[in-house]
Amino acid sequence: MAKRDFYDVLGVVKGADAGELKKAYRKKAMEFHPDRNADNPEAEAKFKEANEAYDTLKDPDKKAAYDRYGHAAFEQGGMGGGGRPGGGQGDFGSAFSDVFDDLFGDFMGGQQRGGARSRAQRGSDLRYNMRVSLEDAYAGTQKSINVPTSVGCGGCNGTGAANGAEPQTCPSCSGMGKVRAQQGFFTVERACPACGGIGQIIKDPCGQCGGAGRVEKERSLSVNIPAGVETGTRIRLAGEGEAGLRGGPTGDLYIFIEVQQHALFERDGIHLHCAVPVSMASAALGGDIEVPTIDGGRSRVKIPAGSQSGRQMRLRSKGMPALRGAGQGDMFIELAVETPVNLTSKQKDLLKEFEKLGEDKNNPESSSFFKKVKSFWDGMKN
User: Fold this and answer.
1) In angstroms, how far is CA 164 from the centroid of its own chain?
2) Which CATH number fits domain 115-164+207-260: 3.40.50.300, 2.60.260.20, 2.60.40.2550, 2.60.120.340?
3) Could you tell me which residues are annotated as the binding site?
4) 207 φ, ψ (degrees, to nearest 5)
5) Which of the four CATH numbers 2.60.40.10, 2.60.15.10, 3.30.420.270, 2.60.260.20 does domain 266-338 have?
6) In CATH terms, is domain 6-108 a member of 1.10.287.110?
């Protein structure tokens, strides 16, 4: 049976570039992979056919020969279908490895196939949990913190090698930083055990850092806390994280804010709530009270006569500032009418007298409730 045209196999036009070929092969390989088509006996043949086509067309020299002579370029003692005498099945391990690297390379450390991993690796990002008071969150502040981290080694200037020596290419992986092993259809890659995936080795490591190019040290930093921060706010300090390995770039430091609970105020976004107890007499007769504000000031609030527990009053622009953008929240005063305790005999007598003089209109909620209770009981009797 005559072989199909390789461009038709991959579903691309003749002369397609490397990117189009890889994209087309990746699609075919995923479509006809034997593991995905256990019930389709024709899938494996199509899978091998796509592999052979891509293995030929991905190589510029083979592609040029195929474009000129077609399949005859690899027959009768020619290149042998993938560069091997008498071949024709293609080098699946090589071809599929290209697609594997393209799909999963970023999850394997961001390495590109065919190139060695950079000797220098970026330092890790660090996290620091900081607790601030509500007053500091309101006004903003500056905090000094001590962060244990890694810094570049001064003995080797971050190279990891003693006496200024240069790292050497790892002989085990030829500087690739990874080694491959063939397992059936698949080519499995793993970090080179000789160099730890760096691609280079240091024969004479620095005595201060042991070849890492960095040492542990505690650093003192000043952090600006903007006004309006909330619990969960994250502040990024670029370049203040862990030093890179063997001269690599430094990571970042992330400050995570936790705003402490306050004894007087409860926060709700940019708004504040304050529960204010008032006496029974003040709630009944009305009057003025002074309440605290988060900026340390005082505000006078008028209590209407006959106020009940739970009544709220708003103080505009007395809340928290918005972290991003203009504006400021409000402060809500919630009244809590306090029942008097530890009464003297005279106070008890006065309250009893007051109770005798009371009318339904003096306690409308109580009167309404007990009328409903009486109606409920009457209904149950009937």
Assistant:
1) 39
2) 2.60.260.20
3) 153, 156, 170, 173, 192, 195, 206, 209
4) -70, -25
5) 2.60.260.20
6) yes
Q: At what angle do helices 92-104 and 43-57 cross, to 10 degrees?
A: 90
Torsion 89-94-98-101 (CA) sign: positive
Q: How far apart are CA 58 and CA 74, in angstroms?
A: 15
Integer-rounded Cα Rg, in Å, for the chain is 39
292 within 8 A of 135, measured Cβ to Cβ: no
DSSP 111: P
Q: Do domains 6-108 and 266-338 have the same CATH topology?
A: no
Are 298 and 290 spatial neighbours (Cβ–Cβ below 8 Å)? yes
3-state secondary structure 127-173: EEEEEECHHHHHHCEEEEEEEEEEEECCCCCCCCEHHHCCCEECCCC
Residuewise pLDDT in 10s, the chain (382 residues):
578 888 888 888 887 888 888 888 888 888 887 777 777 878 888 888 888 888 888 888 888 888 887 877 776 544 444 444 334 444 444 445 455 444 444 444 444 443 434 456 788 899 999 999 999 999 999 999 998 887 878 778 777 778 767 777 888 887 777 887 766 666 777 888 877 777 777 777 887 787 777 788 888 899 999 999 999 999 999 988 888 776 678 889 999 999 999 999 999 999 999 999 999 999 999 999 999 999 999 999 999 999 999 999 999 999 999 987 778 999 999 999 999 999 999 999 999 998 888 777 888 888 888 889 888 888 888 7
**Diameter over CA atoms, the chain:** 123
Tokens of 198: 């760096």
Which residues lie below 8 Å from residue 259, measured CB to CB, with a gap of 6+? 131, 132, 133, 134, 137, 229, 230, 231, 267
| Binding-site residue set for Zn(2+) | 153, 156, 170, 173, 192, 195, 206, 209
